[in-house]
Amino acid sequence: MAGRIEDYALVGDGRTAALIGRDGSVDWLCWPRFDSSACFASLLGTEDHGFWKLSPAGEATILRRYRGGSLVLETCYETASGEVRVTDYMPVNDGSHLVRIVEGLHGSVSMRMRLAVRFDYGLAVPWVSRNELGDLRAISGPHKVVLRTPAPLHGEGQTTLSDFTVSAGESVAFTLSYGPSHEDDPPPIEPRKVLYETDRYWRDWSGRCARQTAWDEILQRSLLTLKALIYQPTGGIVAAPTTSLPEQLGGVRNWDYRYCWLRDSTFTLIALMDGGYIDEARAWRDWLIRAVAGNPEQAHILYGIGGERLLPEIELDWLPGYEGAKPVRIGNAAIGQFQLDIYGEIFDALYQARQRGLLGDSDGWRVGLALLGHLERVWREPDEGIWEVRGGRRHFVHSKVMAWVAFDRAIRSFEEGAAPPVPVDRWRAIRDEIHTEVCEKGFDPELDSFVQSYGSKRLDASVLLIAHMGFLPQDDPRVVGTVAAIGRCLIRDGLVLRYDTEDQATDGLPSGEGAFLPCSFWYADNLIGLGRRDEARAMIDRLVGLCTDLGLLSEEYDVGAKRLVGNFPQAFSHVTLVNTILNYARAEGPAKERSDGACIASASGGIPARDLAIREIAAGVSRA
Question: How many whole angstroms separate alpha carbon 557 and alpha carbon 98?
Fold first, then answer.
C-alpha cells in the first residue's frame, strides 16, 4: 500500500523524477521523461504495479533530510543493532540512472532490497535475465532497465531480492539504469564519483538563491523543487511529476499534471527571475514561444514538455488508484478547452521577462501579434476558466480580467519602445471596453465583491489576482471589499478555497476537495498589499507549516483529514510560495512589480501611463 502523500521525497535529474517513501520504497518513476509510462506505479495501486524498496530487514527509527542546498536525499535508519544511511540521487541531465547507496554508520544492520519492475504503469511484467557481466536486465517491449550491484541477488515470485548486512565503514551501492531495449545496455557509472558531481551541481545552483527573508531555507527548497520539475532539454516545467493523486481522498478529481500549463508561465518566470535564476527563466520563455507558435486559433492551455499538442485523456482501469481514488487518468482532456486567461498570462510573461532584461525577438513579436489578433475576435465569448470546469462555459471574471491584461501588456510594451508598429489605438479601445464591462457585470454591490462570473452570486479566489494584475489598485474599495468577502466566505480553518465545490453546478464534478494552496498565497499577497502584514505573516507561517519535513507541497490540503492531497510536489504551490515570500520581504515584490504602471492606466480611465504623464505636464504648463 502506498504511503501518505506527505511521506514521499523527490529526487530528479532534469528529465524525470522519482518519489521515494519514508519506508525506502520508490513507488513512482516514469522513464525516460516525466510524461513517459511508469515502471514503478505502486503509488497508484499495490506492489503488484511496481516498486523498489531498500530498508532494514527489521524495525527501525527513521530520520531523513536533503543535503543542504541539494536534491540528494539521505535517510538514516537506526535499529537495535546499528545504524545505516541510504543516499538516493539521480545524476543530473542524464535521464538514465537512479542510484541508492547504503552506508554503515555504527554497529551492523541486516538490509533487504526488493525490486519489482512493472512497465506501462504496472501492466507489463518484464522478462528478467542476466547479461554477460552478471548484471540484472529486465525487458518489456521498448523498455529496458539494468540493475548493477555487488550485493547478492535472487528471484522470488517475479520479484528480485537481496539480503545483506552492512557494518560500520562499509557501503553497498545499487544503480538502476534505463535504456531502449533495442540498444546496448546503458553504460555503468561510478556511484560515489557521480554522487559528488550531482551534489556539487545542486549546491552550486542553489547557492545563487535569493536571501534575506524570514524563510530562506524553505525559499531555497522551493526553488530547488521548481528546478527539479524543469525538463532541461526544452525548458518546459511540468505542473507536477505525478498523475491522478486525488484532490479529494477517495474522489474522482484525479488529473494528469505531467504537462506544462501556460497560465503558470508568468508566476514561474517571476519566481525564477526574482529568485536569481535568469537562465532557467529564459529557457522557459523560449519554450513558451515555441509551444504557442502556429495558428493562433489552435492555441492550447497546456502542452507536452516538448510542446506536444496531442495529449488524449484515457483511463487506466487496471490501477485501483491512490487509496482507491478512481479513475486513474493519463493525458488531460482540458487541452481541448477554451480559456481566455492564457492570453493574458502569455503577454504578461513576455512583458515581465523584458522588464527583467530578457529581450524578445522578431518571431516572438509575430507570434504575439497573431495571438492578440485572435483575442480581439474571441474575448467576448464565454470560456471554461482558470479552474478548467467541466460544467459548461461562462463569462468568468478572472478570464475577462486576463484578456484585459493581454491588451494592457501589449500596449505597455509599445509605449516603452519594445514593440514594432501596432494598432495601439484599437487595443486601447478594447482594453477600456473590457475594463468597463468587468466593473459593471463582474462586481456585485450587494456582496461588495467581484464574483466568479457575470451575474453570479458565487465567490471565487481567482479574483484575488485583480490588483496584482494591475486591473485595479490594491486600495480600490472594490478590491478591498473582495478581499473581505473571500475572507468571510471562502476561508476554512485558515486556508482559502478556490470556490464552493458543494455546488456541483460550478464545475460539473461531485462536491468536495481540499484547499487549493495557491489561493491562500494570493490572499496573503493581498494582505501584504493592504498593509495588513501581521495577518499576512500569520498566513505565510501557516502555509509554510504545511510543507513536509523535506519542504515539499502538493496541490491542496485536506483540512479535515490534515493531509496533503493532489499531485505532488506541485509546481504552482511552490511558485506562489516563492512569490509571496518575496512580496513580504521586499518593498518591490513580484506582486507590485506586476501591477506597477497598469494600475495607473486603469485608475485613469484606461489612459496609458505615458500619455497620462504628458497630459499632466501639459496641464501644468497651461495652468502656469
Answer: 30
Helix (H) or strand (E) holding 368: helix 362-378
| CATH number, residue 95 | 2.70.98.40
Tell me, yes or no, whether 189 and 239 share the same domain: no
Query: Are 241 and 382 part of one and the same domain?
Result: yes
Give residue 607's pLDDT. Answer: 37
Peptide bond into 180 cis (omega under 30): no
The residue behind cell 518591490 is 588
- Residue-level pLDDT at 266: 78
Please tell me whether the peptide bond between 32 and the residue prior to it is cis, using omega within 30 degrees of 0.
Answer: yes
Answer for the pair 216, 194: CB distance below 8 angstroms, yes or no: no
Q: Is residue 623 part of a domain?
A: no
Domain that holds residue 484: 208-611
Nearest to 205 by CA among 186, 179, 227: 227
pTM for this prediction? 0.92
Q: CA 549, 551, 557, 563: dihedral to nearest 10 degrees? A: -20
Spacing of C-alpha 283 from chain mean position:
16
**Residue 359 grid coordinates:** 529581450
- The verdict on 552 and 586 lying in the same domain is yes
pLDDT, tens digit, for every residue of 427-486? 999 999 999 999 999 999 999 999 999 999 999 999 999 999 999 999 999 999 999 999
Within a domain: residue 498? yes
Backbone angle region of 276, left / alpha / beta, with phi > 0 → left and psi within -120 to 50 → alpha:
left
- CB count in 10 Å sphere of residue 69: 18
Look at residue 556 and tell me if it is in a domain.
yes
The domain spanning residue 248 has which CATH number? 1.50.10.10
Same domain, 128 and 219: no
Closest CA to 516 of 458, 555, 548: 555
Q: Tell me, what's the pLDDT at 534? A: 97
Cβ contacts of residue 142 below 8 Å, gap of 6+?
A: 180, 181, 182
The structural domain count of the chain equals 2
Angle at 232 between CA 229 and CA 235, to 5 degrees: 85
- The pLDDT, as a whole number, for residue 510 is 65
* C-alpha cell belonging to residue 52: 523498489
pLDDT band at 94 (very low <50, low <70, confident <90, very high): confident
Residue where a domain stops, chosen among 141, 173, 205: 205
- The residues, any chain, with a CB within 8 Å of residue 588's CB and separated by 6 or more, are none
Q: Which of 152, 173, 205 is the last residue of a domain?
A: 205
> 260-306 pLDDT, tens per residue?
998 887 788 888 888 888 888 888 888 888 888 888 788 888 999 99
Q: Is residue 270 part of a domain?
A: yes
Distance, in Å, from the CA atom of 242 to the CA atom of 245, rounded to the nearest integer, reads: 7
pLDDT value of residue 186: 94
- Determine whether 308 is exposed, middle or buried from the number of CB atoms within 10 Å of its CB (0-12, 13-18, 19+): middle
